[in-house]
Amino acid sequence: MIMPSSLETCLEGDGAKNDTHRPRGWGTGSCEVEQWDSDEPIPVKELERGVAGAHGLLCLLSDHVDKRILDAAGANLKVISTLSVGVDHLALDEIKKRGIRVGYTPDVLTDATAELAVSLLLTTCRRLPEAIEEVKNGGWTSWKPLWLCGYGLTQSTVGIVGLGRIGQAIARRLKPFGVQRFLYTGRQPRPEEAAEFQAEFVSTPELAAQSDFIVVACSLTPATKGLCNKDFFQKMKETAVFVNISRGDVVNQDDLYQALASGQIAAAGLDVTTPEPLPTNHPLLTLKNCVILPHIGSATHRTRNTMSMLAANNLLAGLRGEPMPSELML
Question: Which of 155, 167, 204, 302 could form a disulfide with 217 if both were Cys (CB 3.0 to 4.6 A apart)?
């Protein structure tokens, strides 16, 4: 099997010192491992070479496993395990056609990602990066009544695009801030999940028009690609704050730039972009009212270690022909 070096680093961390915390089969001689020895993404040519003849592949969300990679792997490839909950980097139709099993890492990153979403929302709406910069550059001269005023959550309406595991965890954390009303949109109403927050199911245009804060937490699908576009931003309030922690392609970034630069919406916070990394000369990076993070939603030591263990156990179970702890049913 082939795997990235970052996984080995996690598996050799504190949790791996006790053999009971190691993946089943780890270090038992049951697998021959070829490893890409860098934290940087493996070049396509190297991945093609490394995966040739492999029975299993452990990949990251930065590795695009398409028909070309699957052809290079050949008929031996039986299982793909991804160190992510998102699977938009995998050619699922082609994978299903070849009878390859897929493991992924849902649930274990929900809390960390929800914490980051709330952190990003607060950082953006209270203009913290601007405030920090003013302290550093001497702009802080005295206390001023309206200087660096932002927007608060108390008595606000929060709209969540995608009330799945992460969307619910975000709402759960925002509720104690005094949010008055939760709205959500998605493929269908989820009354049982929404009941905890008294959240109302509305159309996407209604959510855009009525929300003071919008958090995008949906999966990337053909239906959600480009969902947040010019029409969406035009419906938003001028005082509204937009946050995306899902996937960059859910947002039309050119339209978002125009909305922010023109004052059509107040601010935006992004943990995901297209492409990743975002070029340093991208127009969004010139805006004070746009906070951009380098896709760190799940970046806590505990979460990444747990994800790594789950990904390794998914792979090993798949290679043995056993049920995976977390298998994506195709």
Answer: 167
